[in-house]
Automatic annotation (TrEMBL):
Name under which the protein is recorded: Type I restriction enzyme HsdR N-terminal domain-containing protein
Type I restriction enzyme R protein N-terminal domain sequence ranges: 35-144
Alphabetical list of Pfam families matching this protein: HSDR_N_2
């Protein structure tokens, strides 16, 4: 897999019938390794090891219903009261973060109402704070600290 603009970490992989799987410590199982999954696993590692987010409050591949359609959020971090705190949208490294990607995570956050959003393709990361009362979105220099 491609080297990312994220800290490296010790990961476990295995091969099954010619396909590569990576161990997801949150889901406690091996999942198919795709370029997007590679980014997701690095983001989760970053949140756990560099920002000290509690493992129990991070959910990957969570489902949600949007406009009567089932969707999946890549990563949602909850605060200590169980409310969404951060929504992360991961893309494969070859996917450019465009307005369409920003619109996608914004639509997902219409349901979650998290105060923070992150978009990443593993090479470029965009972090935003969201004020749902005023609809104001502000660019942040780094991932939000977990409080």
């Amino acid at each position: 897999m491609l080297a990312l603009n994220l800290p490296t970490f010790d990961h476990k992989t295995k091969h099954v019938e010619g396909k590569v799987y990576i161990f997801d410590s949150l889901r406690r199982k091996y999942v198919r390794l795709s370029p997007e999954e590679w980014v997701r696993q690095h983001i989760v590692n970053l949140l756990l090891t560099h920002f000290a987010y509690p493992k129990a409050l991070i959910r990957t591949e969570g489902g949600l219903e949007l406009n009567q359609t089932q969707k999946r959020t890549d990563v949602v971090v909850f605060d200590r009261e169980g409310r969404p705190f951060l929504v992360v949208e991961c893309k494969a490294p070859h996917v450019t973060i465009t307005q369409q990607v920003i619109d996608q995570v914004t639509r997902y956050n219409y349901i979650h109402r998290a105060p923070y959003l992150v978009l990443s393709n593993g090479l470029v990361h965009y972090c935003y704070s969201v004020n749902h009362d005023t609809s104001e979105i502000k660019f942040m220099d780094d991932f939000p600290a977990f409080t």
